[in-house]
Amino acid sequence: MSQPDVIIVGGGIVGLACARELAACEASVEVLDDGTRPGAATPASAGLLAPFHNAKPDDPVLTLSIRGRDLYRELVPKLRDETGIDAHLWTGGILHVAFTQAEVDRIRGAIAWQRQQGLITDWLDAHDVHQRAPGISRKALGALLGAEDGALDPVAFMEALRVSAMNAGVQITQGQRVDSLVRNHDRVTGVLTTAGPRSAGAVLIAAGCWSGRIAGLPRPLTVEPIRGQMIALEWPAGEPTGIAVSSAGYVLRRGDEALVGSTMEYAGFEPSVTVDGVTRLLDAAGQLYPALDGRPVRRKWAGLRPGCPDGRPIIGPDPVLQDLWYATGHGRSGILLAAVTAEIIAALYCKQPIEHDLSGVSPSRFWAY
Predict the structure, then answer these.
(1) Which one is the CATH code of 6-45+155-223+309-366: 3.40.50.1170, 3.30.479.10, 3.50.50.60, 2.60.40.1930?
(2) Mean pLDDT across 47-70
(3) pTM over 0.90
């Protein structure tokens, strides 16, 4: 491949989604994927599409999160038709369950402001919760129902993105770690990899929690790893498919397994599973579904999410260094925001109209000039 228009540093779900969208507006793209570092976020994710989880009235990312969720209703079937890979999109809703009166008050307050903003959420009392999910604990006092929320299989979705991007002409180069940007005064001209220098018209940083470890950035990038541990148990026999969230964690069905997640830990670049983490996840599972209490752990794993101090991603061009772009720092919302992040990056790069308010995710919010 000759010099590409854009080099994307990182071959995870965000990098591949951006590659596919940039190729759609006729940019030549190369994705550089190290692929050797343990703890990558996408394979460790549950794939929740839950924009209302911990959302606040003034959350500048909520609109983007809802847009991101809604994009999958068209994107997943389109990728399935194109690649033959089914990401198993499930849109049957998510229950955010309350177990204390304080949680009831908080959730009902959230429903009130969400409805004022025209968003679709509902309160279910305990009877309705158990009609919908009989296995939920009888201690549940009620739940917020995000009726349009759901989940997908992140590994299958990432593979579908990879195949689609390659079909569109994207070159994906495996096994090359990007160590540094290459700069010419106030412009990025490429990257230095473990295999040597590589020139490009622009560089997009989408390397997850490793984004800030790339040398030559114009200033420190405030993206750090947040460890998330997960476990898999046997799904309770006879229980309908569903997703339930509590203040302690979440449980969703994938195949014949109950996936339970996830911890939020600042443990550096250490993607190990701990006894304490597994214990907390088992407690969360048993709180939501008593039938899961005491079941043996089938699998356990951990991933490293790229977190920003304000809990919001960094999306868009660098405010000073020309031809440097960012799509990183998505935290635990990488799956949810991948498609809308790609939509934003492609629109900005290709100078197309964009409807979103990007002030909440702009790289310039951290640096005043």
Answers:
(1) 3.50.50.60
(2) 91
(3) yes
